[in-house]
Amino acid sequence: MTEVQITVAIPCYNGEKTIERCVESILAQTYTNYELLIINDGSKDNTPAVIEELAKKDSRIRIITQENRGLSATRNRGIEEAKGEYISFIDADDYICPDYLDRLYTAITATGADLAVCKYYTSEQPDKDGGVYTIDRSTMYKELLIPNDNIAAFAWNRLYKLDIINDAGLRYDARIYGNEDALFNYQYLKYCDKVAVVDKALYHYIINTGSIMFSKGYNPKRILANMAFDYMLEDAAGQPYLEYVQVGAMWYNLILKRRIILSKARIPDNEMKSVNKMLRLNPAAFMKASVPLKYKLALPFWALI
User: Is residue 85 located within the same domain as residue 192?
Assistant: First the structure.
């Protein structure tokens, strides 16, 4: 029997409405040498029954059930249970194109890269296919830490090497909400010499407006993302990629402060000081970065009030 090359891991909490579409998109992959882990993170809806029925369709599906531990701990469980050489995370809200695994696997193996990423859809957009290109250590932090060109520093839309993850002892930090994937990617990039980019959207990202990241109001858990930025800023001090970490921190906190002010939320003084500190990190780098113009125009206003 051929050894499994890829582990696909789906962290799932209360995903009864979307998990079937997600799983069906994985079962429709043109690349077939994978296992599919569905990690049920203590769902309280009908998710267990739905995934049990889905598992009957394909022997590659393995269900893991645990008490609710949160997204980071659930992704970590996927890493610990994985049998593949590579791992790809798919959120239960999302789904992938039929050639997602094939294109990422071909990109990482053909180029000798340590990570493969692809573009993603958030809405209707031109179906561009620019092939595969590679980026090295001189540009990978700029390309992968600052959200741009539909890549960003997410946990999904990429194929990681499990040997790198396990040899380095990398795990998602369960204390952090909203930026744990950026921190994980930052740490992973330390062990990369080359990244392969598939210049085509293959991942359908469904924005959940009720989530911590995209709810219109202010959620107190958002401030915990600055724990990740504090670590990255200290770690990157003196490195040529420090400015990209600074820009990412400024962008996140610009959005965060706007939501705090507009929602009239009352937060502790030390937390507001943390936000304001992030907004003043490196305005010059922010203004020259590939950040949408509306954020550049907004920075002076939100940094001062």
Answer: yes
Q: What is the DSSP letter of 113?
A: -
Instruction: State pTM to two decimals.
Output: 0.91
The answer to which of 101-115, 138-152, 206-220 has the lowest mean pLDDT is: 206-220
CATH of the domain at 111: 3.90.550.10
Backbone φ and ψ of 295, nearest 5°: -75, -35
Given 204, 236, 269, the domain boundary residue is 204
pLDDT of amino acid 57: 93
pLDDT digits (tens, 9 = 90+) for 230-241: 999 999 999 999
Q: Which domain holds residue 231?
A: 220-304
* Mean pLDDT of all residues belonging to the chain: 91
Cα→Cα distances 206→102, 127, 194, 225, 299, Å: 22, 17, 29, 21, 28
Do 154 and 184 contact (CB within 8 A), yes or no?
no
Q: Tens digit of pLDDT for each residue in 260-272?
A: 988 888 889 999 9
The residue count for the chain: 305
Average pLDDT of span 198-214: 75
**C-alpha distances in Å from residue 24, one per residue of 51, 57, 197:** 11, 10, 25
Characterise 221 by phi-psi region: left (phi > 0), alpha (psi -120 to 50), beta (else).
alpha
Q: Is the pLDDT of residue 164 over 80?
A: yes
* Domain identity same for 113 and 191: yes
Strand (E) or helix (H) holding 253 = helix 242-262
Angle between helices 225-236 and 180-189 (to 10 degrees): 20
